[in-house]
Amino acid sequence: MIYLDHAATTPIRSEVREGMIAVLDGDFGNPSSAHGWGRRAAAHLEEARERVADTIEADRSEIYFVRGGTESDNMAILGHAAAVRHQGGTPFAVASTIEHKAVLGAAAEVANQGGRWSTVPVYADGTLDMDALDTALASGATIVSVMTVNNEVGIQLPIEDVVERTSAHRAVSHTDAVQALGKVPVSVRDLPVDLLSLTGHKIYGAKGTGVLFVRRGVDIAPLIFGGGQERALRPGTEDVAGAVGMSIAVELAVQEQESESARLRGLRDLLQSRLEGEIPGLRIHGDVPDRAPHILNVGIPNVDPEALLAGLDLEGIAASAGSACESGAQTASHVLEALYGRLEGVAALRFSLGHSTTEDDVIHAAEGTLKVLERMPSVETPA
């Protein structure tokens, strides 16, 4: 089996598993408890917070452990909207057209709750429509969310410019860095973004783990209520083992980023060259200078995408049709439609590489893809 779907999820690495098991088997107490088990659990939690903070160059008070990337995105956008309303204002969320559905859904919910929301186009060359962003900011945008790296095509967005423009209008900036960590540099010291979202399972951590970075002084209100955990922003008994695993995954991802990114870039380019030379009409989605090294999204004309994926699965190759974050539904990709318009009769296939990917894997994946395509009937493109 050749696993080339690392942008969907990754296996837990041994260091993360061992760190989590040590907590689960030993210091399993509730960190809010005053006895020894509780104090030891609390110590693990704060060590994990410190590890994440040091790795992304934040202060430990700015790190909140949450239950994944979707929750982190929602807490950032809807939590800030709630804070704006509490202060008597009208929240106005702005997001790029190629954001993850967690961001777009949260931004739309701002409007459902009495605020406003809008999108800013991203074009096929990877550029963000800065004039549209400036217009939204001048119209009273309170938060702008632009991802660091797109999860479907790997485009790196100009987040530094976004943060600068947003700050100039005294709005809050948020970036979903879920696909960025471990692939491109992520530092909240170098990038003065106000809110930043991470998840563990994209970087060889556990599912259901995540982080929200909230820069000191940025207003954000809780979305759920209960105890005072995570400084009352995310109440509920903390998942100490998950936080420990998340922190280890973050630390190792950043430590290995430079060497692993170079390795993955070489393998991605090899896979791309093998496919480009053999598939007529192949197009590379997100083929821009600034793209993450681990994602290759190709468009194959006159092919049924579901049949293609099924054929690859039979060949022992795991890939995905665009994003794998919509409960397995093979619907049209909003990202590809935003970038290129409606792609009728084109199968969009995403290969995403990771730690376990070897040169042999890439070569066999290319050969397997060609073998599947040879067996498939051509699909007529609608007029």
UniProtKB/TrEMBL annotation:
It holds the Pfam family Aminotran_5. It is an enzyme of class 2 (transferase). Belongs to the class-V pyridoxal-phosphate-dependent aminotransferase family. NifS/IscS subfamily. Its EC number is 2.8.1.7. Its cofactor is pyridoxal 5'-phosphate. Keywords: Iron, Iron-sulfur, Metal-binding, Pyridoxal phosphate, Transferase. Residues 2-362 form the Aminotransferase class V domain. GO terms for molecular function: cysteine desulfurase activity; iron-sulfur cluster binding; metal ion binding. This is cysteine desulfurase.
